[in-house]
Amino acid sequence: MAGGRCGPLWTALLAAWVAAVAATASPEQAALPAEQSRVQPMTASNWTLVMEGEWMLKFYAPWCPSCQQTDSEWETFAKNGEILQISVGKVDVIQEPGLSGRFFVTTLPAFFHAKDGIFRRYRGPGIFEDLQNYILEKKWQSVEPLTGWKSPASLTMSGMAGLFSISGKIWHLHNYFIGTLGIPPWCSYVFFVIATLVLGLFMGLVLVIISECFYVPLPRHSSERSEQNQRSEEARRAEQLQDAEEEKDDSNEEENKDSLVDDEEEKEDLGDDDEIEEEEEEDNPASGVDEEKSDANDQGPPTEGSTAQGEVEPEETEEDVTEQPRSADTEQGEDSLRQRKSQHADKGP
Q: Rounded to whole angstroms, how far apart are CA atoms 190 and 165?
């Protein structure tokens, strides 16, 4: 009887012990794959570890089918990391949008190689053999590094990381409004629009306050002095302009006076020339008569008939001679006077 009663008791105790052992062993078995995984999750707090040594990073998303296909290959590559002397990490772009913005990830999955803070984009397949050859054969040396503003450690990409992190938080908040609180999507959009406007106004107010704090207004005396200086400068400029105009007027008047004096001198010269010509005209007939008389005396004493004819003919010849030179000379004088008057009229305007 005692043995029969103890049998079920021992059986119950053994079953309880087995259940307790199974309960304690199951969490350890569940945690075993995580402990065996050599892939190190990277976050915004520990991503600077890749700045030292040699690393390979994978950017993925849980919903991405291509990322899921390369998970096993990436795990195998991480297990051989000690042999290859390389560290292997992964980044969830859903949980770490800031890192995806820092590396400017636009496609998934995305792979990056880092060697002492110098980053390069790996564009090959995510297969273990290709990844292993990429490290052993040092194919990364032929790839152009991400330098300058494209480097994840640059100030530009740090700002990009901040923008991506803010957008990720807004996306999580939008999902919280829609999924957890049950708010319609349009209400969530209206909320974000109003929040953006309010935030912009607030930032503008802050900038105005900062500018007012750092801006030092000029004293009144200095402002008055500056106004007086400006007025004096304007007055000086006006005086200079007036002086220049007066100088121009004086120069024009002097030029006009000089031109008038020149015209008067030309007129006087023309008058003198006319007087000289008239005197020459008066002298020319007398000289002609004297020459004729001298010719007649040289021929000898004339006879009576000849004397009578000679007395009559010289008178006629003298009149003819005096009339002919006078007419020719007067015509020449009038022509010369006309020419000079025309020249003077042309010069006058």
A: 21
What are the strands of the beta sheet with 40-41, ordered from one edge?
40-41, 87-92, 54-60, 110-115, 118-122
Structure tokens at 194: 């109003």
Per-residue confidence (pLDDT) for residue 304, from 0 to 100: 43
Task: Decide if 74 contacts 127 (C-beta within 8 A).
Answer: no
pLDDT for the residue numbered 135: 93
> Residues 27, 95: contact at Cβ < 8 Å?
no
Distance of alpha carbon 340 from alpha carbon 227, whole angstroms:
65
Active-site residue set: 64, 67
Distance CA 56, CA 121 (A): 10
- The DSSP secondary structure of 259-290, one letter per residue, reads HHHHHHHHHHHHHHHHHHHHHHHHHHHHHHHH
Q: Which residues lie across from 88 on neighbouring strands? A: 56
Q: Coil, helix or strand for 106?
A: coil
As to burial, measured by CB atoms within 10 angstroms (0-12 exposed, 13-18 middle, 19+ buried), residue 161 is buried
Euclidean distance between the first and the last CA atom of the chain, given in angstroms as a whole number:
161
**Res 251: pLDDT:** 77
In whole angstroms, give the CA distance from residue 102 to residue 174: 23
Compute the average pLDDT of residues 299-325: 43
- Give the chain's mean pLDDT: 75
In terms of pLDDT, which residue wins out, 110 or 299? 110
> Could you tell me if 104 and 64 are in contact, meaning their C-beta atoms sit under 8 angstroms apart?
no
pLDDT digits (tens, 9 = 90+) for 231-242: 888 888 888 888
pLDDT at position 302: 46
Contacts with 92 (C-beta within 8 Å, 6 or more apart), sequence order: 41, 60, 61, 62
Residue 60 host element (H or E): strand 54-60
Q: What is the pLDDT of residues 204-234, one digit of tens each?
A: 999 898 888 887 665 666 566 777 788 888 8
